[in-house]
Amino acid sequence: MSASRFALRHTLAASLIAACSVSFPAFAAELPAGTVISADNIDKIKNDTFEGHSIVSLLTEKMEWRIRNSGWKLPLAASKEVPLDPRWVKASQANAGKASINKEACRVDNWGAGEPFPEIDMKDPQAAEKLMWNWHLGQLVGDVSQVPQFTQLLIDGKKGVHAEPVAEFSRYTMKGRLTGDSTVEGDGSERGRQLLYFKSPSDMKGLGTYTQMYDSEKVNDVWAYIPAVRRIRRLSGGAWMDPVGSSDQLQDDLDAFNARPCWYPEYKLVEKRWVLAAANSKTGLWNPNGKSFAEKYPVLDDKAPYWNMNNNNFEPREVYVIEAITPSVHPYSKKVLYMDVKYPRFYYAEAYNRKGEFWKFMEFHSYANTADGDVRTTASAVIDFQRNHATLSMIDTASWKTNFDAKASNFSLQTLQSAGR
Predict the structure, then answer these.
(1) Which of 94, 101, 289, 306 is the most exposed place for a label (fewest CB within 10 A)?
(2) Domain for residue 44, yes or no?
């Protein structure tokens, strides 16, 4: 064999060996429940899978950014079905093919209770808007609910918790009721009523708001009680876009989206995908009687930036990704929302400023209370990354009550005044 032919065969063989070596990469591993995703291991495990989904596909861009840059850790948990109230399921199914969006009147026609649009077609040009109406009208919150105490932690990303006010929140549904003889209470003009007032510290005690929500284009009527002067003040119609006290959240950020859908000019359904979320959260994330940080807030890490809820369970959930374009007077230019495909529940939201820059990340943990048919928030976080500050709401789930004996008259301005005194 000539030297040239030997060299050619040697080169071809080497090329084949090299080709084979890059054609068979290492197999991805299926990670066990309990694996914790963190900045330390994300590059190593991002192509591995959990319940058949690659880790990288279960993280949004901003979720991965938080893990890499701000100490967020996600413990993997086996996914579980979220049981849905049979009354809600039946009411939702009854709306199929009947309910329709009435843009001029800012309402949904032919809706009784539950989700107005139980069947969503991704190709429907109104799909995103229908999902937002599902959220607004069809949340699994019960006909009446009361959270006797929750704390709103104000957190500096360098120094930690600097305020821990405690408040009470209650809500009464006037339209879309699932208990009783009728889905509507009153004349049908009201959507519901809400009461919120602070119990501590002393300089905030008694401060609160009473809100009447309507099933029309009419903005909410909101009154505030000021205990220092023992007076009621009516707030402006644009209060739904205002900050909640000195917190990082707007009124519109409560549970991710707290506006009537028609107040936003445009929605886009971006995609359907999977994410890791705390859909079957641990309970007892806040212990009001705890002495140390760890006892009071067992879900939090006691180190900078102090707002990471790293000790909960995160499971794969399929979600709709919705882009909500705000009105021009809104502090945000848009919100990106991640809603569960099986029922109206937001796990995450991103807010962008008027320049289109990423501003806030919102995170919501929840669990199903099968006894009363509602889905309860255990904790939420609104993180302002531009000022390195966050507001966390931690709920005392043990004292939460749903569908107890109550009347609409229990929710009024007089109730707010009495609570504030």
Answers:
(1) 289
(2) no
Q: Identify the pLDDT of residue 32.
A: 98
What CATH number should be reported for the domain holding residue 203? Answer: 2.50.20.10
Q: What is the C-alpha separation between 360 and 336, in angstroms, rounded?
A: 11
State the greatest distance between any 2 C-alpha atoms of the chain, in Å, as a whole number: 106
Amino acid at 2: S
What's the confidence (pLDDT) of residue 237?
Answer: 81
| pLDDT confidence of residue 5 | 43
Enclosing domain of residue 113: 93-420
Q: How far is CA 161 from the centre of its chain?
A: 22
Tell me how far CA of residue 343 lies from CA of 5, 33, 118, 336, 346, in angstroms: 69, 24, 9, 18, 9
H/E element holding 16?
A: helix 3-23
Residues of the chain with pLDDT under 70: 1-27
* CA proximity to 319, closest of 258, 279, 273, 378: 273
Q: Is residue 61 part of a domain?
A: no
Judge contact between 417 and 225, C-beta under 8 A. yes
Tell which residue, 349, 348, 353, 350, has the closest CA to residue 330: 353
- The answer to whether residue 2 is domain-embedded is no
Q: Is residue 11 part of a domain?
A: no
Give the tokens for residue 182. Answer: 């009728």
Contacts of 190 (CB under 8 A, 6+ apart): 174, 175, 212, 213, 214, 215
Q: In 3-state terms, what secondary structure has residue 263?
A: helix
Q: Which of 312, 295, 283, 310 is nearest to 378 (CA)?
A: 283
Q: How many domains does the chain have?
A: 1
In this prediction, residue 26 carries a pLDDT of 53
| Under 8 Å between Cβ of 67 and 73 | yes
> What is the pLDDT, as a whole number, of residue 7?
44
CA separation for the pair 131, 135 (Å, rounded): 6
Distances (CA, A) of 30 to 37, 42, 316: 14, 14, 14
Which tokens go with 206? 């008694």
Please report which residue ranges of 282-377 form alpha helices under DSSP H. 293-296
Phi, psi of 300 (to 5 degrees): -95, 150
Cβ burial of 413 (10 Å; 0-12, 13-18, 19+) is middle
- What CA–CA distance (Å, rounded) separates 99 from 371? 29
